Prior knowledge:
Distance between the termini: 38 Å
CATH topology: Protein-Tyrosine Phosphatase, Chain A
Largest sheet: 5 strands, mixed
Oligomer: single chain
Amino acid sequence: xxxxxxxxxxxxxxxxxxxxxxxxxxxxxxxxxxxxxxxxxxxxxxxxxxxxxxxxxxxxxxxxxxxxxxxxxxxxxxxxxxxxxxxxxxxxxxxxxxxxxxxxxxxxxxxxxxxxxxxxxxxxxxxxxxxxxxxxxxxxxxxxxxxxxxxxx
Length: 153
């Protein structure tokens, strides 16, 4: 099956990892058909575009689910540590999403740079396919710029 590029902000990072913005009911079966075994959701379940009952819907298709609700205005090191553990220890292939693929791209930027030893420019280019907090002038963008500037190495 081909990648479902009509899912918001769909991106394939490698053979075992895909990312996107929000998913809808119709996407659950498509992820299963792609062989996804684990979905990590970084969005808040209270967001108007969140998929209600996401964990149960994925489980019905045999897909493990990890929810790490990351407030857009307050990403924390605890969120990032939980994300790293979920990606590292969870079943593969994995699909990671939020609402716009902005949280996800920032988290993968740090994972790629600090844990996978990817060159910074390459990690940044992958993130910038979705967004760059430096390109926005808002309190949230400043929070995210500070978040991606942190390093765990």
